[in-house]
Design goal:
It is built from 6 helices and no strands. The protein is an all-alpha fold. The N and C termini lie far apart (51 Å).
Length: 123
């Protein structure tokens, strides 16, 4: 293989890396800032309006015994993984029709990724 072919291949690899570098590089700090309004309901308080999201990754939907979930959420039979969280944060009513969370969703996919990255830090 010639040196020029190696350089061309390295150049293509470098450009590909630059173009895909942001993939999977969600910003948990930005997600924390975006989550701030959500924390009004999703807190560790016993009288919180929403369930505590600490440890939400890998947890089945409607699994916390100390929270009164809607019937649609009880029937959803989800496990909160990245895909399900992403879909729910984007459009809660589309993911779990009839759930009672008063939130319209988040339209920017990068913001959704950032919130999911932040939720991953809640252990």
């Amino acid at each position: 293989m010639s040196i020029s072919a190696l350089r061309a291949g390295a150049g293509v690899l470098f450009l590909f890396t630059l173009m895909t570098d942001h993939v999977g590089a969600a910003d948990a700090e930005h997600g924390k800032a975006l989550f701030a309004p959500c924390a009004a309901c999703h807190s560790e308080r016993s009288d919180a309006l929403g369930p505590n999201l600490k440890g939400v990754f890998g947890r089945p939907s409607a699994a916390l015994l100390d929270f009164r979930y809607s019937n649609p959420m009880k029937r959803a039979n989800l496990v909160w993984d990245e895909d399900n969280l992403r879909a729910y944060i984007h459009d809660p009513q589309a993911k779990v029709k009839g759930n009672r969370m008063p939130y319209a969703g988040m339209s920017d996919p990068d913001d959704v990724d950032d919130v999911v990255a932040y939720l991953r830090t809640l252990k």
